[in-house]
Amino acid sequence: MLQFFTKKLKIGNLLKLFVLYIIEDKMCVKDFCMNEISQVSAYSIQNSNLQQKSKVVNFRSGDGITKPNSGDNRDSFVSEYEKQKKKANRDKNISLGLSVFMATAFAAIAAVTLHQSGIFGKKVQKAIAKDITNEKTLKELALGKELQKQTEEIKLMIDRKDVFREKGLKSMPPIFVYSEPGAGKNAWVYGLAKDTNAKLFEVNVLKFNDMYNGQSENNILKFIENAAKEAKKNPNQTVIVYFDEIDSVAMKDNSVNSTFTNKLHNAFKTGFNELLKIPNVQIIGSSNKACKEEALTTLLDEAIINRFGKKIFVPLPNSEQLQNCMKTYFEKITNKKYIAQELTENSENIKKMCDYLSQDGHHLSFRDMEDIISQAVVLSEKEAKGYPIEMKHVKEAVLEKANQLNWPPSEIEAFMKTLV
């Protein structure tokens, strides 16, 4: 960056010397040197072509007035003095104007550079493949029957994309995943990428938004361009481009800001169409704003949502999924003295609890279950330092979550009494 700005300043100096050449009535300037370069661009130009007079122009001080010889008469002296004084003032103003112009240009270049680097504003996200090594497989997620059926169909299309292409299918149909918050959309996408050995490029679309005019659209197109380049490097490798929280650029907008929204929509659609041209790319978008199918077209822009050929609803976790969530957490505890044996074995109490929590009307999400487990850990440590997590701590944590979710207290308390 320093070399870049230095280059710009050198060009500015040459521009000033050129202007000096013009205002000196095109006098032949053979040799010149810079005697002083100050913050306000005080330049001294020496013309070696003048034999008897030496004329020094300093734009900072306004000097540079040639003194007449002693034999000149008074009138000619005054006239010549006034001309040279005006000329020196004019030269000074021109130099000052050029200095201000150069300083403004320098500041503008610095501002743009800093903004794009993310020091202020939002940095354009680069397409970096997500590490899914530690993510769960689709089998470990224990998907429901309907979601399992749809998932197998998508896996088939990805695994046999070459055959589908020979049968006339130019690209894999984009997938739109929607659900209530915490239902496990991201876990499903990660599991799909892991099961199909696909490279996953994920971005939260909320990060595209920027307060600077035009920058949001640029962020969208730049990310898509980067993802497309990565996909083209290995045509045989399936690449999943996942737009999380896509509603942030796809929501309908009839407000006064609709012009800005339309620009976002157009930028996203342009990038979307470019990705469709790449055979090994699978596009996936997700939203939890439109958690019901009828809300897809009422809340989201139809021109965008209709580009997704497949729409998949991810329901809230079932009993088996909640049990797996709890089991996975407890298995990560390496020191078994901190976990009661009743929680690590196939406890009937855990099964009964998860059956109850997954019933219709409770709306318990994976996020809620993670909150319950975290609170159980806290409660065990509050009882005593290093105290193991027991079933009583889990039950108490469930009661606290039930109160937060406004479940009927009498109902949940009655159920808890049925547990041993």
Can you describe this structure?
- The protein is an alpha/beta fold.
- Helix content is 53%, strand content 8%.
- The strands form 2 sheets. Strands 4-5-6-3-7 form a 5-stranded parallel sheet, sandwiched between helices.
- The longest helix has 44 residues, at 74-117.
- The two termini are 69 Å apart.
- Residues 1-11, 17-68 and 117-124 have low confidence and may be disordered.
Overview in brief:
The protein is α/β, with parallel strands linked by helices and 420 residues long.
**Counted beta strands:** 7
Strand content: 5-15%
Strand order of the largest sheet: 4-5-6-3-7
**Residue ranges: pLDDT <50 for 5 or more in a row?**
1-11, 17-68, 117-124
| Spatial shape | elongated
Number of helices: 17
Structural class: alpha/beta
Overall pLDDT: 75
For the record, give the distance between the C-alpha atoms at the N and C termini, rounded to a whole number: 69 Å
Calculate Rg over CA atoms: 36 Å
Order of helix and strand elements from N to C terminus: HEEHHHHEHEHEHHEHHEHHHHHH
**Major beta-sheet overview:** 5 strands, parallel
Helix content range of the residues, please?
Answer: 40-55%
Features:
420 residues, alpha/beta, 5-stranded parallel beta sheet, elongated, single chain, two-stranded antiparallel sheet
Topology:
Elements: H1 2-23, E1 44-46, E2 56-58, H2 74-117, H3 138-141, H4 145-159, H5 161-166, E3 175-178, H6 185-195, E4 199-204, H7 215-233, E5 239-244, H8 247-250, H9 258-276, E6 281-287, H10 294-299, H11 302-305, E7 310-313, H12 319-331, H13 341-344, H14 348-357, H15 366-383, H16 391-404, H17 409-416
Parallel strand pairs: 3-6, 3-7, 4-5, 5-6
Antiparallel strand pairs: 1-2
Helix pairs in contact: 1-2, 7-9, 12-14, 12-15, 15-16, 16-17
